[in-house]
Every structure is written in structure tokens, then in C-alpha cells.
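Throughout this chapter, every protein is written as a compact record of paired, labelled lines. An example of such a record is reproduced below:
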Amino acid sequence: MSELRKDPITGRWVVFATEFRQALNTAPQSGTPAGSLCPFCPGHESLTPPEIMAQRPANSVANDSKWEIRVIPNKFPVLRVEGLLDSHGDGMYDRLNGIGANEILIESPDHLHNLDNLPIEHGEQVLGILRDRFIDLKKDIRIQYIQAFKNHGEFAGANVAHPHIQMIGLPIVPKTVADELEGVRRYHAYRGRCIYCDLIRQDTRTPERLISENEFFIALAPYASRVPFETWILPKQHHADFTGLGKSELRACVRIMQEVLTRYQRVLKDPAYNWVLHTAPFQTADAHLYHWHIELIPRLARFTGFEWGTDYYINPTLPEDAARFLREASI
């Protein structure tokens, strides 16, 4: 069983997951060819736990090889559904049992097809299933937050090359999201408005950091980008919670994600990257003030002792330049 321990100085929680070490030791390399030992390729369903849900043709049955999208529990979960939360102290220290959830959404049977080159209808189904898993996991009152993320490329932490998204349901709100929500609260108390909505309005009027937009979403290089070509995708209308997306919004979200990732390929030559979804915490009274969004982080440089020591970032590329390079890329 994993456990969470709280740093008494910073308030940061750390997950100690010994099974995850086993996963790193037994996982195929990220460059594994399609169909060889990849546990996510069709025909290898016995290498994964039984599926939680799947998009599959009518003539197929659960856990056979005829599927289009598949959701499974992580074989080596960071946090487990089974057990009691059991918060307890150890002198001055706080500790929690590793209770939560850890699921994997396999985006396609194709070992090489990422979200950027899937048909738009298929991408819409991927995000729709992701939304539906959020809705289901929220029913567990022990889970306060779900972190959805994707690691693309070995440098971004991908242990399996087959395109997939991970969801980790947490019994606490991550410090990053809690800090964002606190910033949202301060701005709302001062101005009576959402800081993300104001950010969208300003960057639309003076679009030097604007990368792309459609009827529902905007993609921009944030003013204080931590790394070169960092990109945020935000809904233009205020929505706190990712689970509120309708069909048209899901399709628009896929379209703008595909466009940004295609621009990454053109300008950055298919870099390793992470994307993370930030949404409102589930059990916070003023969570409606939050503005959900997706952050895309190309992994172009390693962090140094300066970043680790200060939590400041050295970025050699101005966001205005990054946005211009991406805007001007032919797609």
C-alpha cells in the first residue's frame, strides 16, 4: 500500500508508491515497436487488468481485442481504491493511506496514433470518456481532486509509447491547484471578476501571445511562461469544472489541442511533452470561482539546481516569440 506524507514546512504532499518502482522495472521501453510487448496493443488485453469501460463495436465483448478506446485500472497504481483513508499523525508529521484511484485511458488501438492525428470524432470520444470517468470518480467522497495528464516521449516520463492518458484521483487537493485557487480568490475579492477571464480578454485584445482560438477555446503562451513554448488552452466562457463540457465544446477542445500539437511538430520537430488538466476541486465551497484549463509543457530543457532551489524558472524564449513561431507554422 502506498502512502502520502506531508512536508510540515511547505505543506506539500509526497506520494510514496513502492509498486510504482516495480512498474518502472517491468514496463517496456517507450520506444517499443507496435505489437511486440506493448500491453496496450490489441491482442494483449490479458497483460492489463480487466477494463472499466470501453468504446467498442456492437459485435465485441468486454476485454476482447475489438475495441476503439479502452479504460483500465493501472496495473501498478500510485493510489488504490480499496481500503480506508486513515489520516493519522506521527508526532509532528501527517500521513494518509494511499487511497484514491489510478486509471489509464488508452486512446486508440493504433500504437502510433496520438490525439493530434486521430480523426476529430475519435478525439471527441476520447475527451468524452475522460469527462465521464471524472463524473464517476467524483462520486467517491474520499477523492477531492483528479489529475489527468499525458506523458508523450521518454523525456516526458512515458514508460509505454502507446498513446494513453492517466487519471489519478487524490484524497487531497494538489498544492499547485490550491495555490491557483487562492490567486483566483484574491483577484475576485479585489476586482469581483475571474482572473482567467480577464487574462483571456486582455490577450485577445493585444494578441501577441495568442496562438489560436475557435468558438469555444483560446490557446496562448502565458505571460510568465515557465518553459519555452508552454501553452495554455482555456475555455472562453467561465467554466470551473471540466465535467460540464457538452458535445460541441468537446469537439472544439479536441480541434484546438490537435492544432497546437501539430504546430509543436512543425516548429519543435515532435518534442516530448506533458499536458495536464487543471479543474476545480470537488469539495471546495468556492470552487465555482476557478477556471479550468489545460497546460501543455514541451520538454525542451532539463531543470537545474537554480529551479530546484528557488522554484523560479529560467526561460530562454519570450512567450511573445514562442507564440509568433507557432502562429506562423504552416499546418
Q: What stands out?
A: The first strand starts at residue 3 and ends at 6. The chain has a mean pLDDT of 92. The CA atoms of residues 42 and 65 lie 5 Å apart.
